[in-house]
Amino acid sequence: MNLPTKIFEPxxxxxxxxxxxxxxxxxxxxxxxxxxxxxxxxxxxxxxxxGSEVRNLLKANKLNCNCEVYIELDWIxxxxxxxxxxxxxxxxxxxxxxxxxxxxxxxxxxxxxxxxRDRNTKYNLYEMYGAxxxxxxxxxxxxxxxxxxxDNKYKQxxxxxxxxxxxxxxxxxxLSLLD
Length: 179
Prior knowledge:
Blueprint: H1 15-18, E1 25-28, E2 31-34, H2 41-60, E3 67-71, E4 75-78, E5 81-83, E6 87-91, E7 105-110, H3 115-129, E8 133-138, E9 143-150, E10 153-157, E11 161-163, E12 169-171
Parallel strand pairs: 7-8
Antiparallel strand pairs: 1-2, 3-6, 4-5, 6-7, 8-9, 9-10, 11-12
């Protein structure tokens, strides 16, 4: 005799549940994802180096840019989806300790444990909710993919110029960080 499948369906959660959880979690469409233990050294080094380089470029262009770099800041996409990208560039003003609108640029540093989610779930989520640029870096494989949102669809590009807003643009060879 088999038990009804309803018993085995995972429970869905909301942002109010998420706020109570201990540890590092993300949630997509109400389904929780435990974040791996802290990222490997090369993952952290790439992410922080990327963030520092972009921050320096933004500071040099401060008159035209109202953008900041954030490492692992929660983005509350909606009541049932909260993600914490490795690094993101956010333009515009906000006062909360989390983001409620799409960042202009997201970097995810993939590993064997996150590769599928970064390439599929997050790719589709970031595209659907309007993150202008999505970069997937794989330090182990020394690969980099840059996607730019064009007509509401990501198109892969090899751009070095990131037009974050109508007045803020940075030129950055992200691939050089993998050398």
